Amino acid sequence: MSNRFGQLFSVTTWGESHGPAVGVVVDGCPPRLPLAVSEIQADLDRRRPGQSDIVTPRKEEDRVEILSGLFEGRTTGTPIAMLVRNSDARPGAYDEMREKFRPSHADYTYQAKFGIRDHQGGGRSSARETIGRVAAGAIARKILAQANPDQPVEIRAFVSQVHDIAMPVGAAATFPTLAEIEATAVRCPHPATAAAMIERIKQVRSTGDSVGGIIQCRIRGVPPGLGEPAFDRLEADLGKAMLSLPATKGFEIGSGFAGARLKGSEHNDAFESRDGRVRTATNRSGGVQGGISNGEEIVFNVAFKPTATILQPQKTVDVRGNPTELAARGRHDPCVVPRAVVIVEAMAALVILDHWMRHAAQNQLFKF
Amino acid sequence: MSNRFGQLFSVTTWGESHGPAVGVVVDGCPPRLPLAVSEIQADLDRRRPGQSDIVTPRKEEDRVEILSGLFEGRTTGTPIAMLVRNSDARPGAYDEMREKFRPSHADYTYQAKFGIRDHQGGGRSSARETIGRVAAGAIARKILAQANPDQPVEIRAFVSQVHDIAMPVGAAATFPTLAEIEATAVRCPHPATAAAMIERIKQVRSTGDSVGGIIQCRIRGVPPGLGEPAFDRLEADLGKAMLSLPATKGFEIGSGFAGARLKGSEHNDAFESRDGRVRTATNRSGGVQGGISNGEEIVFNVAFKPTATILQPQKTVDVRGNPTELAARGRHDPCVVPRAVVIVEAMAALVILDHWMRHAAQNQLFKF
Amino acid sequence: MSNRFGQLFSVTTWGESHGPAVGVVVDGCPPRLPLAVSEIQADLDRRRPGQSDIVTPRKEEDRVEILSGLFEGRTTGTPIAMLVRNSDARPGAYDEMREKFRPSHADYTYQAKFGIRDHQGGGRSSARETIGRVAAGAIARKILAQANPDQPVEIRAFVSQVHDIAMPVGAAATFPTLAEIEATAVRCPHPATAAAMIERIKQVRSTGDSVGGIIQCRIRGVPPGLGEPAFDRLEADLGKAMLSLPATKGFEIGSGFAGARLKGSEHNDAFESRDGRVRTATNRSGGVQGGISNGEEIVFNVAFKPTATILQPQKTVDVRGNPTELAARGRHDPCVVPRAVVIVEAMAALVILDHWMRHAAQNQLFKF
Amino acid sequence: MSNRFGQLFSVTTWGESHGPAVGVVVDGCPPRLPLAVSEIQADLDRRRPGQSDIVTPRKEEDRVEILSGLFEGRTTGTPIAMLVRNSDARPGAYDEMREKFRPSHADYTYQAKFGIRDHQGGGRSSARETIGRVAAGAIARKILAQANPDQPVEIRAFVSQVHDIAMPVGAAATFPTLAEIEATAVRCPHPATAAAMIERIKQVRSTGDSVGGIIQCRIRGVPPGLGEPAFDRLEADLGKAMLSLPATKGFEIGSGFAGARLKGSEHNDAFESRDGRVRTATNRSGGVQGGISNGEEIVFNVAFKPTATILQPQKTVDVRGNPTELAARGRHDPCVVPRAVVIVEAMAALVILDHWMRHAAQNQLFKF
Question: Residue C309: left if φ>0, alpha if ψ -120 to 50, beta else—which one?
């Protein structure tokens, strides 16, 4: 009872790592949108395993099939069901996990919750669940790009930190292009930092270890007015979206945790008139004030812990609670953030689009 | 379309800062719970303006009235409606705000969203909205304290940082008592730090400025198994709950942003057998793994920006977009975190209880 | 967990028959709508006890107070909280009901469900709960009246049958006016039938008995396109709305149960071109096809059982399950349908408006 | 935004009549339930086209595939995705419908709503959408059969009327067995009536026409206490569930529309002590009082209109609004009720199970 996200543009994901398939149902998609399967596939390819030498070597084509909701190349307004078959299942590769709880994985908590678990590759807790999110996000992003004829909504996430290697302050002064981000396997738009990050990942992998990192996401073109008072603030829903991703430990928007160290006189964003509309001189608010977008760039960071799977022996207990040791083996990403970039973008797109639709329904439909 | 939180134990808040009243409807409360209005009032008193010399001097009794859902001192399972009358309204005190957008407040975004706004004291965007949350949270906390006869759920939030004054590392090694927290006006359980914080707040207030801060929240007694796979992870819902509070800019759980700088071999929490059950040797996970509680203490931090209202003149624009200046005056909290402590606790209680009910409905009802 | 209705224009009702008050929170109301408390009151007055000599003599002014969501006479887009104080409480009048289950009331089922109940006047199961619905419905109806500048949505319910006295076939050939309906205490627009109905109600009341009846509701001005495929069909949501009213036992739309006796060649509504748009020659569909409005008049019937409270002694059991007899006394409506007319209209308005907003959000926001 | 049903045990259906497949995602299924694909298939076979000589000859195997949520023969508590491939697509068979609106079908309303439609076989409005409901319902029924070890919940629907041929009064005095219902192709447990119904259907089909009918559904074993006050009454949700089925025009519970003709003294169900618990002497309430089950048999009727597809030429308009005639051809059910029996049972199961879970979460989890 947890596998649905969004109120009007809503997505329901399903599937386990080593079941027959993973997939998603998108409900509430506006009709008449031209949509090709290749547009979905393009985003999935950015998420796919095996795309570079710093990610997991698991072999998955991740070919998406659209089963409903399209007619003659356009959406019909009915649910869009998409699925991706799992192909690289390895029967037997996970036998040890049937008996032992992997540290900092969801093995124990799933067992405690459900009294049963699919131990193969983490089952439902596997990041393969995010395939459905990315597929749905690709549709949302296409809609947002066309929503306002004068100004497309652009969502750009990138890796800003790996382990203790961070982009220099000011390096992201301008909105990065997709090409700049995709230029390196680590998806950091600052070439020198990217090189150091890749080096660090390779080094850590060589010791069988893993590292964490931070993704920054920036969104421009969002009109003022999205987000709701009280509970469904835009940053609250963005935060939930990001914290629902595997391995995330933190979310901050605008000034974030650093903002707690400032005075009001330093933090407030003065209003000014610019470009014919109300703008702020600075953007410590991160594009959201009182839970509602103010038309400035939305900027937030997401912290990811190091991958829990490591190729080193670890102490743990078995399903009967007896102390044991987990052998070191398996395929994994030594650092999840490069592949998570497109997932962050997808979730951001789902939030923005859903709020756009909610905003319009209440505020733009009737003329009083 | 935003004023409801929770799926099974759900709360709907309503009201504006200077309207007749603010209130809440609690739907889904378990029946037969003994409940006295004084129990609600006790939490409201911790949130109330004017309770110490470092918070706003606005005079509000904030007396709560229970209008439904109780019969002979027990809940009936029907909606519990509660309201608090606004008393310290100052007609005319907000005339300037009718014409000018206060920097880093919600004035502009509400106007952009709705095309109309109640400018008095921020209207719906006022933190008075959180009165309803605290009242509902008081009920949730009482239920949680009794939920498991063997082990009450205890939720304890406190101020861990004000401006750049933070509790020393290790100062919160043990679970703080309510008395330790309430011992000082700033609600920091480390007396020396608390004294410095209070000093800083007074100093900043004397210059008409404000400061931000951080609240830490710790929860013990939560059984393993709460939280849902995919979107409604426990940390995702806790994050949303906290980021839906006014002035919040960040949320982190367990290792948080610092965790991004660690290696997997440093970050993983080894399992061990302790106290007759599965425990972790460390708690970098912050009590949640794979989105589901693991029975360890839940620990998270919430970053608050400095209060946007300051007693210094600020540049802004008026409702027609013309540059202007905002005069310096008004009543405000120079730092919101001391009063926000009970609000953080309330929101945490709402999340934990709602997930408990959801968990039970799916996993504990039927015996297969 | 049941006290909320509607997805975008959503209402949450609260309150018991003999508690301090009953009320409602309306969330999602479009902003900028001019709204006066007198407009809400007008509908409540049509529902009020004591308005004629064929309804309950319970004395209630039912004066509504608006507590939030309005600013200078217009809605602000934030929640509108409304309450009505209960005034005619009679302590002691319900002592017998504390011990005995009234037949065909909700006494037993509430006890079985919650393990506790407010026995006074039915508590939450009292029809006083519908006060909140009527107040919210008054707002929805005003919006619908203005939604389409070319064509107001008009919702007109009336009593078409009391006991076995029904309006003659064809008597409702034209859309009845409000004046025709309000002309008689029984709210049947056919004067001769109305007179017979009133006579029947008085006669039945004189024997301490009660009767059931049928309300017909007709809605014109609804544009084609409202309603959703699959589960949230317009007739499904109208049906749920009506069957959620106290004392209802049936719902039918268009041809209804009589349609089951027809052949397809008799039942199908041929399309034709009329008034410059697609129309149907007949309206056995009742304005809805495939769950979606087709622009024709929406016509449905709601069956109400006879009032369960009668002034005759009845066999029952007490709370310990022992056989007993219920004495004959109390105040009640000998027939609920005259006062239920405005409640049916209110619920219909909530459904239509909510679907209008949902439709717009998905289908009219983006131009592809 | 309409393709989901249920709050805790929730189902999302997707798919079009002539798309690649139809399917469903079940979210919230309790874990550890033994489940075989053959159990789902058994119900789908009762719904399948071509199963007798009085239903559509469309050839569909309707073989279901389970894609997730099962592990080693048991449910895991994660979403259960199921799909059925469409096989009997006839390209070109629907060319006429691209241009013309079929009377009393959803062609026109889908076009009006979405501005686009899949005209092949009705697209999303096809009754093939109910495949997903039946598959989900099969799971719900299995759970309900085991929910209470002392008393299984049994749901039995059957055809009580076809055209003007109805079961004699009193014919369904005892709860019918599945064998009695499945004994005839028309699924009426009264053999003589069944024979007449079959005769009527064949006769009507021979003239290219169709007929409507009524399904009665009876449920026993439901404990007292399911259903919620106010909006989510058990009969309201049952009514919505049934009215969300294609071709339904009416719903009544217990005394239904006939109850409107009774007096309170005739209609009230006296309580008595029987079998060691509180029972009613009669059951005009239909097993629900005040929206909540009272432990008696739940009894309701659903009215279905005659199939809109007939093999006779009909007047209509084309997509440009010009008058035209629809040729007579196609495959169809001359009467939908025999195949709809299992769909009614499925929807009833979804409602009962969802309410059971909701009830438990609020009322049975905590002991006060």
Answer: beta
